[in-house]
Design brief:
Length: 209
């Protein structure tokens, strides 16, 4: 595993105790454990959307060491319960790209999305890119044995699915979510930060939520 912080990617500040990348609201740490941090996502098309980010350099959640999975699973379960209590049914998903790949959405660091949806994201993803999906034991977290290459992963909690990617593309799930929520032209987090939704997320999911 590469253990040296890469100053070029958005989350390198998480590896440096006491540091913060910017004063932007979406760089607020909502909750953290020894090895993971919970942040609201820039481009929160819906309120209640967070990222779980390893506090060490790694490109995909599937590459997180097995020794940390209990810690990660407890955190994912706790945050999902908070989100569902406030906003309804939540899905976890990941664009599991390698360093420098467009699959990673311009962020060369693993990050698991958890977001509430008023539609079936798993079904919508399979309809968007038919065929080739595989169904591991239901879990909200991608595991190392799922895919050796780049992948898309999505889970409703009861059902999980992943697909190995031959033709990398950026922000696959964001494009689906934007369309399904009536924001088809606002899928790109770089130009649409949805900062009001970020504020709602921090208030609802944070320590005082």
């Amino acid at each position: 595993m590469d253990t040296q912080p890469d100053q070029g990617h958005n989350f390198h500040w998480l590896f440096l105790p006491g540091q913060r990348s910017t004063t932007a609201l979406y760089d607020t740490t909502i909750e953290e454990t020894q090895n993971f941090a919970v942040l609201p996502t820039k481009g929160s098309i819906v309120p209640g959307w967070v990222l779980i980010v390893p506090k060490f350099p790694t490109p995909r959640m599937a590459d997180v060491p097995q020794s940390m999975f209990a810690e990660l699973k407890d955190l994912v379960t706790r945050i999902t319960c908070k989100i569902e209590a406030k906003f309804g049914k939540a899905y976890s998903f990941e664009h599991g790209g390698l360093k420098g790949s467009p699959v990673s959405c311009g962020v060369d660091q693993a990050h698991l999305h958890i977001a509430p949806m008023g539609f079936d994201l798993l079904q919508a993803a399979q309809a968007e890119s038919p065929g080739g999906w595989k169904y591991p034991v239901a879990d909200r977290i991608p595991r190392a044995d799922l895919a050796e290459s780049e992948y898309w992963f999505v889970s409703s909690g009861d059902t999980a699915a992943y697909k190995e990617i031959d033709c990398p593309s950026s922000q696959f799930f964001r494009k689906i979510i934007a369309r399904e929520t009536g924001n088809s032209d606002q899928w790109d987090y770089r130009s649409n930060d949805f900062i009001d939704n970020v504020a709602v997320t921090i208030k609802a999911v944070g320590a005082n939520g």
